[in-house]
Amino acid sequence: EVQLVESGGGLVEPGGSLRLSCAASGFIFGSVEMSWVRQAPGKGPEWVSRIYSGGDRTYYADSVKGRFTISRDNAKNTLHLQMNSLKPEDTAVYYCAAGSSMIWWGKGTLVTVSS
User: Fold this and answer.
1) What tens digit of pLDDT does each residue of 33-63 get?
2) Distances (CA, A) of 44 to 30, 37, 67
3) Which of 49, 50, 82, 106 would staple 35 via disulfide (CB 3.0–4.6 Å)?
């Protein structure tokens, strides 16, 4: 059974940082592209970032480029998202998703950016 479990969300002030993690199991993690997707209150899902299976290529939405960094540890089956210079508009539930078509999703972790 595929499982994706996100953690690391919480309340942070504007300008602050958070590091999200996603623990994966039930599939060959090191062979699969991984992504982060977020959904703000009252809005549809927004793709945030993607990383290739080997970690050698990464892509970012313009809204987070230069502030967020995606990474992965294939030995530990873990995906990360380092989020710096957070803004109120980054407030959302953040999901990790597995596969080039993002077929598997976790249940998400809530990030709230507010003073």
Assistant:
1) 999 999 999 999 999 999 999 999 999 999 9
2) 29, 10, 22
3) 50
pLDDT tens digits along 60-98: 999 999 999 999 999 999 999 999 999 999 999 999 999
| DSSP-assigned states of every residue in the chain | --EEEEE--EEE-TT--EEEEEEEESS-GGGS-EEEEEE-TTS-EEEEEEE-TTS--EEE-TTTTTTEEEEEETTTTEEEEEE-S--GGG-EEEEEEETTTT-EE---EEEEE--
